[in-house]
Amino acid sequence: MADESDAEKTEPASAKRLEQAREEGDVPRSREVATFTVLMAAGAGLWVSGDSLIRQLQTVLISGLKLDQEQIFDADVLFHRIAVDVVQVLITCLPLGLAVMVVALASPMLIGGWLFSAKAFTPNFGKLNPISGISNMISTNALVELVKAIMKTIVVGFVAWLVVLKYKDAVIGLSLEPLKLGIGHTLNMLASSFMFIVGALGLIAAIDGPYQMWHYANKLKMTRQELIQESKESDGNPQIKGKIRQLQREMAKRRMMADVPTADVVVTNPTHYAVALKYADGQRGAPKVVAKGVDEVAAKIRELAKEHKVPILEAPALARALHNHAEIGDEIPERLYAAVAEVLAYVFQLRMFNKGRGKHPDKPKKLDVPPEMDPQDPAFVPKHGKPKDLNNGASA
């Protein structure tokens, strides 16, 4: 199978790409969902509070149509009366207006969420380019908007036609009803018709909402090369990071080698492992590992130890245990205290002999190293994990 072209946008947008889009004011939006929620809220509000609203408005209307002689001949009194009636109308409509406003502010939370971006107010003169404007007019998005407009016309027109058929006889019968009763029936029919038509818009909103989410995600898709480049910008170039880690290891190695001459003893395997130990006499704490390594590093440690006359002791099991269970700068494990104490006792006795005091000490032959701490022992247990597979043991 042929490899997928890097030029194809097949990868979902990264978190950084989505955040950049939000900063630029680009979030998924559905005008159909917003329109439907606002109209439905207005219709529901009228349905619930319609009777009370009509009665209050009727009272204001009747009051406004009654004029006495003082209001007719005194403009100030007339303007005050009009102002009072206007305020009364506003107070009457305020609950419904507040409800619609709250829904209008909350509707963006359905798709995209609230967003304020200063970049959205920045002039973009590229939008004045007639070529890009023409391309937008014949784009896939423009075709989708055209299809939506046609669908809205068809659906709303069909529902309106059904409503007309339903209330046709009732509308004709309004002429035979008393004025007050006829007005009530008319308002009920208008409210019902409004809710039916808004419900039809809900069908369009139910389709447009998921489509806008899909379109937004598809628009922000990235190529594999873009993902790789973004990863490099965010986390750094892997080659550069690898070089930095290499330099850090080399610096740590140089610092470690500089501490070898200060060690009290170097415990070896004798060729594969080397661990340099230092004990600060008179200070609290156990001996510490100042250097360790395998193969070439172990050879370098032994070379420096010989050069600076640091005692070297062959203790394979202890060397392997120290290398596997102690890091550079750490104190030795508590379970190795006895073995290391025997080694240090030999070293101190050797120093005294070199100064002409006492006899030459015998090298320790059998050190107390727990089997489970020696990588070459069948009972070995790593610091983290299960007992070692004997078939995978490293030779020493």
From TrEMBL:
The listed locations are: Cell membrane
Pfam families xref list = Bac_export_2
Give the compositionally biased regions (Basic and acidic residues): 7-28, 359-369
Q: List the membrane topology term(s).
A: Multi-pass membrane protein
Statement: the UniProt record of this protein carries the keyword Iron = no
Q: Which InterPro entries match?
A: FlhB, T3SS_substrate_exporter, T3SS_substrate_exporter_C
* Family assignment from sequence similarity: Belongs to the type III secretion exporter family.
Q: What is this protein called?
A: Flagellar biosynthetic protein FlhB
Name the gene. Answer: flhB
